[in-house]
Structures are given as structure tokens and as C-alpha cells.
Amino acid sequence: xxxxxxxxxxxxxxxxxxxxxxxxxxxxxxxxxxxxxxxxxxxxxxxxxxxxxxxxxxxxxxxxxxxxxxxxxxxxxxxxxxxxxxxxxxxxxxxxxxxxxxxxxxxxxxxxxxxxxxxxxxxxxxxxxxxxxxxxx
Length: 137
What we know:
Elements: E1 4-11, H1 15-26, E2 29-34, E3 49-55, E4 61-66, E5 79-85, H2 88-99, E6 103-110, E7 116-121, E8 127-132
Parallel strand pairs: 1-4, 5-8
Antiparallel strand pairs: 1-5, 2-3, 3-4, 6-7, 7-8
């Protein structure tokens, strides 16, 4: 799998409705994962979207989620750029360069869903998410 760069949108509790709307606009296949399905089933945000991904017939990929608990949703800070794939060396190289001189919100490390993931804001104020999956066998 080659690395992919795409927008990642943040929502204030209405990610499901927004992603379903974009599915109607662009077509394609929408996958939604909630906080509850990821092991946080007793919390007030269990039905909120932890990660959503729309892949369209035209080759677009749009990702989105509700703002995670503990983080503030504020207009102007409603998107990130996502880098994902299975080329660990390439993606770690991007991470090192993007996080240099910026701030790290989530260290690049193994997460509960099995991928290596990190989130940082570069020195220009752009938020980046890097997700390294296991290579397909």
C-alpha cells in the first residue's frame, strides 16, 4: 500500500450526520467507528464517531471524527491532514520532520486499534496525524 495524504475533519458531535451527508454527495463506502465500539461503551460519548472514513469511486478519501473528550472544538481548528500507509520508514521520516519545531499531542506509538499513530502540530500551526498500519501479507 502506498502512503496516502487526505483531509481529516473534526466535528462538534455531529460527525455521523456530516459523514453520511458527504457519502450522499460523493457516493462511495463509508465506515464509522464509535468510541463505544472501541471499548469506551459506558461513557457519555460512546455513540460519537472516533474515526470515520469515506472512500469514493472517484478516488477521494475523506476522514472525520467527533472532537475527542478532553479536547476543545473551535471553529478554525476543525481539520487535520492525515498521512497513512504501511511504509513505516517513510511515514516515521515524515513524522520526525513534521513534529520538529512543533508540538506533539499524541506520541507516535502503538494504539489500541493496533496501528502506530501520532498527532502533532507543525511549526506553522497545521495539525498532522500519522497512522502506520501493518503491511498487508
